[in-house]
């Protein structure tokens, strides 16, 4: 008699995943998780050399087919080339992860240059919409097709020191909810609201070592900052058959959020 396998619905055999910003940090963890579950994976990243190196390493670790290529998701011609190469290499695309995102800290939200506000929207919001549009013909022909986005907790909470990034992520939440309703019964669309996950990106965003150390010990319900693997596990659930009844959701993965006390300790 076959033994029941509770993890069977989390397996991704037969799926082809395109992960943007997948060469390092959270994107790399997502790509590894999908490949480990059996998916074929394209890692698209601004740094093509790093994308290829990460793909080779994950392929060796998981035994799945993983390839990489350079792709600037703010440029339409590079998006189209990436989608075409993924479909050519693997025959289809069933799983899109819009993971690319970045923002710079500004102490004064009214001092952010207008052009930076526009560029933040182009990178954090418009790129995901454009990539989804390019993948649509493949997604609509796939089994269990999904679009899962890397959102941010600052897209739903006040974050005046990251005003350009937070506004763009808020726009992403709303745009992807709209797409979930547009794609109803055809493609599932969800967004993960990511809390503090310490990666080298925090230093690149302008946070000093003291701030990074404070973020490493947040006053949240779990008492720790996140790891890339924490986020990857949520993406695997949402993209796999295990999440087949979930669409149109913004799901918070943030250590439970900030601990609230009405009275001082």
TrEMBL record:
Pfam families: adh_short_C2
GO cellular component: cytosol
Highest taxon, organism lineage: Bacteria
Sorted UniProt keywords: NADP, Oxidoreductase
Keyword Oxidoreductase tagged: yes
Position of the signal peptide: none
Keyword NADP in record: yes
Family per record: Belongs to the short-chain dehydrogenases/reductases (SDR) family.
Name assigned to this protein: 2-deoxy-D-gluconate 3-dehydrogenase
Organism the protein comes from: Halochromatium glycolicum
Phylogenetic classification of the source organism: Bacteria, Pseudomonadati, Pseudomonadota, Gammaproteobacteria, Chromatiales
